[in-house]
Design brief:
The chain is α/β, with parallel strands linked by helices. It has 9 helices and 11 strands. An 8-stranded mixed sheet has the order 4-3-2-1-5-8-10-11, sandwiched between helices.
């Protein structure tokens, strides 16, 4: 890898994207976190952890590998804050009564999320405490450093929830991954969010002193700063 973390991440992303496409054929769009074998089993392993049982509100990214986590959130009578694909429709709040049990596997995925719940319209919307943030990755190392698809949406969601006061530095960040996705080292950049817990189909890996950025929305790349969701959230913080 090169000495530039951004370039090193791009190189690792290309390498792993090709590897996962061969390892899990048909597991989703190349370059994105894969729908790995055993994702449902990992979701059930997460369900047995005290941090899950104690959580009342869970924020979950939209990747297919996290579908069972979204289903379990409502099944366990928790509130789900779902990020929509590419954050184009922002964040959606869903409660168990909004989505019938028989429809959850269909409604809690992709573009269906916005229609299934209540889209949070900022700056008017208010968001209460979020107890967990769940993400999917291309890779993660044992220090919790994550490699995503390069769009920065997991890091951005974390920054938005921090900006809104729904999370703080102690709020657990969890990623679900296959054992194969736990690698030796992932390059890190200043605003990358590290995971406090890594849950695979076979084990739970706690991370001590996972690094969390504290810059909120102040130092976003221009492509993210232009997103309507970011501008709306910032609109509520102009003093």
């Amino acid at each position: 890898m090169t000495g530039d973390p951004g370039q090193a991440k791009a190189e690792l992303r290309r390498e792993l994207s090709a590897r996962w496409s061969e390892f899990w054929p048909g597991a989703g769009q190349k370059g994105r976190p894969p729908l790995f074998a055993g994702s449902g089993k990992a979701a059930e392993r997460l369900r047995r952890l005290p941090l899950w049982r104690l959580a009342r509100t869970v924020a979950v990214m939209p990747e297919p590998s996290l579908l069972q986590v979204r289903v379990n959130t409502l099944a366990d009578n928790k509130t789900l804050i779902a990020a929509t694909p590419s954050l184009k429709q922002g964040l959606v709040r869903l409660t168990p009564g909004q989505v019938p049990v028989a429809q959850r596997s269909r409604e809690l995925r992709g573009w269906s999320l916005a229609g299934a719940g209540s889209v949070l319209r900022f700056p008017e919307a208010r968001l209460s405490r979020v107890d967990l943030l769940l993400g999917a990755v291309l890779a993660v190392d044992r220090q919790g450093r994550t490699l995503g698809d390069g769009r920065g949406l997991f890091d951005l969601t974390y920054a938005i929830l921090r900006q809104l006061g729904a999370m703080d530095a102690k709020t657990p960040v969890v990623v679900l991954a296959a054992s194969e996705q736990v690698v030796e080292q992932v390059p890190v950049q200043a605003w990358d969010v590290a995971a406090d817990w890594i849950v695979t189909p076979n084990e739970v890996l706690p991370v001590e002193n996972a690094l969390k950025p504290d810059s909120g929305l102040d130092h976003l790349p221009e492509r993210l700063a232009r997103l309507p969701l970011v501008q709306a959230v910032r609109g509520g913080w102009d003093e």
